[in-house]
Amino acid sequence: MRSADYGIDAPNMQRALWIFGALGVALAFAYPPLGQYTVYVGAAFLASALVMFWGSKVGKLKAVERMLNEFPWTGNERVLDVGCGRGLPLISVARRLIKGRATGVDVWRDVDLANNRMERTLENISIERVGNRADVRDGDARELPFEDETFDAVVSSWAVHNIAVRSGRMQAIREMVRVLRPGGWIGILDIEDTKDYVSELRALGMLSVTRKGPSFLFLIPTYQVTAWKPEPERTGEEEAAKEEAVPVMA
């Protein structure tokens, strides 16, 4: 039975690590006078490549599950995955849903993730049999194509750091908050600028903003950032109207 393939992260970096590692070891055998040096260098590159490969195939799946397990689920949520790639958080969320729906958006750059195309994500959705609870579309994290307060939760994994400039990354954080409903939560996994994410979320009035980590899935430390959007405070008139609307039993 086929299983979903969520791709190789930073494929160019991983390819370079494998190549330089193999060259270092090969040179050690081809030219023994340098072997005592190049074999260690080559081994270090190969070890780094193995860590990166493990992170892509095993580590990131575990990290996403750990993050999602921290939040309460009713099964009726509408959830957005920002920078969904080949669908790892998207599909993990969809498995938790009953009547809810998970939507993924991406700009589909394969420099960040190997074969990062919408067709691959749709294929994974089909393999995991969550097509009735998940969909994908084109979308830039800096300008999400949704109305305000559309989603009960927003997730993102190793995506925001790929935006080249800091102002763009902070704009992506603001967009996540904009499309989030009051009482909803945000969960982000990323390798850079996570302290800035925390500061921006707090500045936007988010509550219970936390940053956990690091974990070394891809050599560079990964951190988890979570936050909740506060419910609006009711005025005295709204509270009175709510009480009047409650039927009193005789």
Give the number of helices. Answer: 7
Element-level helix/strand string: HHEHEHEEHEHEEH
Whole-number count of domains: 2
Radius of gyration: 22 Å
Give me the secondary-structure category: alpha/beta
Order of adjacent strands in the largest pleated sheet = 3-2-1-4-5-7-6
CATH H-tier superfamily of the largest domain: Vaccinia Virus protein VP39
CATH architecture descriptor text of the largest domain: 3-Layer(aba) Sandwich
What is the helix fraction of residues, given as a range? 40-55%
Poorly predicted sequence stretches spanning 5 or more consecutive residues? 245-250
Largest sheet: 7 strands, mixed
Question: How would you state the average pLDDT, rounded?
Answer: 89
What is the end-to-end distance? 61 Å
Tell the overall outline: globular
Structural features, described:
This protein is of the alpha/beta class and 250 residues long. It has helices at 11-30, 32-68, 88-95, 118-127, 166-178, 194-203, 236-245, and strands at residues 78-82, 101-106, 134-138, 151-157, 180-190, 207-218, 220-228. It folds into 2 domains: 11-58; 71-228, Rossmann fold. The protein has 7 helices and 7 strands, in the order H-H-E-H-E-H-E-E-H-E-H-E-E-H. A 7-stranded mixed β-sheet has the order 3-2-1-4-5-7-6, sandwiched between helices. It is globular. The N and C termini lie far apart (61 Å).
Topology:
Layout lengths: L10 H20 L1 H37 L9 E5 L5 H8 L5 E6 L11 H10 L6 E5 L12 E7 L8 H13 L1 E11 L3 H10 L3 E12 L1 E9 L7 H10 L5
Parallel strand pairs: 1-2, 1-4, 2-3, 4-5
Antiparallel strand pairs: 5-7, 6-7
Helix pairs in contact: 1-2, 2-3, 5-6
